[in-house]
Description:
Helix content: over 70%
Oligomer: single chain
Order of helices and strands: HHHHHHHHEEEHEHHHE
Number of strands: 5
Radius of gyration: 24 Å
Strand content: 5-15%
Structural class: mainly alpha
Number of domains: 2
Distance between the termini: 50 Å
Shape: elongated
Amino acid sequence: MMEGQRPDDKRMSDNYAAFLVPLLSAMAWLFVGLPALRWLWQQWWTNDFYSHGLLVLPISLYILWRLWPEEAEWGGHDMGLILLGILMVTYIWLNRQRADYLAALVWIVMGAALVWAIAGWITLRRVWFAFAFALLAVPLPFVEWISLPLAQVTGTWSARVVSLLGVPVVTQGSQISLPNANLIVGAQCSGLRSMVSLVTLSTLFAFIVSGPWWGRLLLLLSAFPLALVGNLARVVSLLFVANRWGAEAGFDFYHNYSGYVFFLAAFAFLIVLARVVRCDSVRSDLL
């Protein structure tokens, strides 16, 4: 009769599994994802709408590390393995088709499927947000497509507000004419950069705070009106500065720095709103 496995041997085997299985799996996932990572890295450095992606990835890895359970269900989990296989085939096909942003999205979801396959559904339920948050770092093509139409709408409404406040202004297409300055409304006036960044920030903020679910949902949804109203206020103030101190002061100096000011103001509003909806403490499992 064979001697059974001793408790010390089993504990050592579990320790090796807890260290080697996720390490080797993560290395394999990163190796397979090298084409997607190269594309993402290039986009984060060159795409103004997604420069925040450089911060999203390390934050996602930190959340994954902090929320990873000590007792994971190591082994092959059939549903996770099946999903992983389907996503792998899809990822390879998308890479061959040069569908870079879709391949990057699938690669991140593939990471979640890998967690399910090697560590079980319960583990995935704990760490799912790390992968969901990472999806916000993938540049989507339609963001750039809608920037100019949204900028023109912003310019039209800004001119109306300025006119109601007594500043003489004439709008002709994408040009806003003041008595001493002219503004061509371009994609940079759309506010999409602030909106994309605010959606990312509010998503993270809503996850890390403790409070009722409806309050956290409200924090998440507030990003869209905050970005729209904040950008409208920014363009209106820009027109006032240009009308008062000239085009150089408004469209050069003020334009370059006002975006940061309004973004910080929007974040301050998020903090105040969090207190109002009783989401004013940070989750202890993330500290």
